[in-house]
Amino acid sequence: MPRIALATYDPGDEPHHDRDLPVLVAALTDAGAEAVAVHWDDPGLDWSGFDLVLIRSTWDYSWRADEFVTWAERAGKATRIANPAAVVRWNTDKRYLGDLAAAGVPVVPTSYLAPGDAPDLPADREFVVKPTFGAGARFAARYTPGERDRAVGHLARMHDEGLTAMVQPYVEGIDVSGERALQFFGGRLLHASRKRAVLAPGAAYDADKVAHPDLEPWTPTPAELAVAERALAAVPEAPELLYARVDLVDGADGEPRVMELELVEPNLFLFLHPGSVDAVVTAVLAAATRRPPSAAAAPR
Description:
alpha+beta, 5-stranded antiparallel beta sheet, 4-stranded parallel beta sheet, 9 helices, 13 strands
């Protein structure tokens, strides 16, 4: 009976936002595992007591990115963690988009402004400003060229907090064909979903946002699948990924581009795709019971 920890966040007195978590715990338990949902930042947990730590809805990590990465590395030394700690370190910083672009993956064009950098912003088109460490559209907003002063204030707020900003053109294809999320699990396409634009014109960067508006099932096109697979193949050192979500939008040429590559705590949307639960359980159990590479290579 493998022991599996599903790492999540501590909601305190608020309702928990991960609708899939109790479903996944119950399904793993029914399949014969000892599965428990635990808070990733619980100082009293002994991670070595689990066969697998599955990072699920650690959705508060972006406020404490360094602490979170340190935790993942510590847990990864104590037991198997999915995805691996090296992937967590790389993927929590959205400057990974530059790595993907350098590998030839079509991505949304992105520039970066660290604290102290001049506010170099587009003067001829709508653009988006958001932090390199962020989730759920936190501190993200879209601006017209005439709203430069508001955008500069946004940058100043992030820089005051030590955050590096990302600046991207607003991809108008989102308003037409939405943003598509291709979810992979156990190395295979699990399902896909589509949502509409998150960032409304004029909305403040610190306003609450609906992370997945008008979410619906989606059948990916061959072009979308090809770009997603190119992005996964470009992850440094070709690690073993238990799960991945590739978020795509259409560029000005109508071709899909990577908006984000979610390798840490992507929402699985199992509530929208209940038929995917069995495949997730199978892949998680396989990861939990697989011998580590050192054991597999040991002489008999």
